Amino acid sequence: MSLMSFLPRSGDLPPPDRTAFLLDFDGTLVEIAPTPESVKVQAGLLATLRRLRRKCGNAVAVISGRPIDQIDFFLGDVPYAVAGEHGIAIRRSPGAPIQRANLPAVPAAWLKQADELAAKYPGVRIERKKAAVVLHFRGAPDAGPALRHAAEAWVATDPRFHIQEAKMAWEIRPAGIDKGHAVRDLMAAAPFVGRYPVFIGDDVTDEDGIRAAVALGGMGFRIPRDFPDPAAVRAWLAALSGGGNDVWGV
Hints:
Elements: E1 19-23, H1 45-55, E2 60-63, H2 68-75, E3 81-84, E4 89-91, E5 99-100, H3 108-120, E6 125-128, E7 133-136, H4 144-156, E8 161-166, E9 169-174, H5 179-186, E10 196-201, H6 207-215, E11 219-222, H7 230-242, H8 245-248
Parallel strand pairs: 1-2, 1-10, 2-3, 10-11
Antiparallel strand pairs: 3-4, 4-5, 6-7, 7-9, 8-9
Helix pairs in contact: 1-7, 5-6
């Protein structure tokens, strides 16, 4: 399939000085791996993102469900801005302080029960974040319904939290903060403000970001609906960052 088939369907992008890119990480820039720490950053991705930053006047952000320190581990200071934990934490530029939403902590009883579930179902992995807990069942697919049942029982007792579906995982997190919140927040300030937002993601957690980008007059893309896989996203971004009037439409 030709790279040109991955061009935005509604027309060419605006010139780079009017475009902003907001990119998911896992499953979008890199392939999903068996565990979060085992993902591989493919050769050329960092160079592509650096070129894209230069071309777009720094208006390149990564918006991920991961904590920001994990994005830093894989990408360093290559993205200009990073939003972690689905928008709970935002760093607006390299070296800037991380701003965190004032949110409730996950109850200790839920964390204890999560650990008990992991012991009961070998292969289940519990990921603790500052304001959320994730029940990963990629290593134990049959445990998914039982984990969902437990999570539903927890949030039924505390409406401040909700269940966010992810790929082979349930994330119990504060309600009202999502990737759409991160998009709106970043797009309200330099270097993103006034630009045409382009959001790219791969799962249900990215739909909020897609809706926010579209509501702001931009575009949203999702694997596999618009790109078949992360390799195609990387190839498209590489073509954009390398220049070419046929890509940018300028």
